[in-house]
Amino acid sequence: MDQSRPARDLMNGRRGEPGNQPSLFLALASLVIGPIPVLAWLLPAALVLPALSAILFSSAAIVGLLAWLGRAGSSGHDQLTLWDLAGAFAFVGCAAGILSETTSVAHLFGVVMAVP
User: Fold this and answer.
1) What are the counts of helices (DSSP H) followed by strands (DSSP E) for the chain?
2) What is residue 115's predicted lDDT score, i.e. its pLDDT?
3) Contact 53, 100 (CB under 8 A)
4) Per-residue confidence in pLDDT tens, the chain, 116 aa
5) 26-50 burial, b for 16+ CB within 10 Å, e for fewer?
6) Where are the domains of the chain?
7) I want to staple 12 with a disulfide (CB 3.0 to 4.6 A). Which of 38, 70, 75, 115 is the partner?
8) What is the model's pLDDT at position 25?
9) pTM exceeds 0.85, yes or no
10) Of the candidates 8, 6, 5, which has an alpha carbon nearest to the alpha carbon of residue 67?
11) Residue 46 Cα distances to 36, 101, 104, angstroms
């Protein structure tokens, strides 16, 4: 008997599809969205968007990896999948990265920029 089958079923939508089981979708979303107010409170204002972009891109990669490992396919237009959640994280991460200043990004990662 395949021991990993329940975990795969949870990830690929037979039982754990976010459209079928909102608790998985809410848990993944709250793990990413929950720390954002703390991040905004702890970091200087110039570093919030670059840090948010990095967090959202890494979250998109993790959720995308879960969807890929679980072989989650598209289940139609009426249900959200893990791919949708990963795409939403990547989309908002791109927006935060676009709105970030380059000097703030360099400061966040500790890069010293030469001033001409």
Assistant:
1) 6, 0
2) 60
3) yes
4) 444 444 445 455 444 444 455 777 788 888 888 888 888 899 888 888 888 998 999 999 998 998 888 876 666 666 778 888 899 999 999 999 899 888 877 777 777 666 66
5) eebbeebeeeeeeeeeeeeeebbbb
6) 5-108
7) 70
8) 74
9) no
10) 8
11) 14, 8, 6
Token pair, residue 57, equals 């891109």
- The residue written with tokens 């409170």 in the block is 41
57 half-sphere exposure, CB direction, 13 A CA radius: 12
Amino acid sitting at position 110: G
Amino acid identity for residue 25 in this structure? F
pLDDT on residue 113: 62
Cα angle vertex 17, ends 13, 23, to 5°? 150
Q: Count other C-beta atoms under 10 Å from residue 67's C-beta.
A: 21
One-letter amino acid identity for 2? D
**What amino acid occupies position 93?**
G
Cα 109 off chain centre by: 20
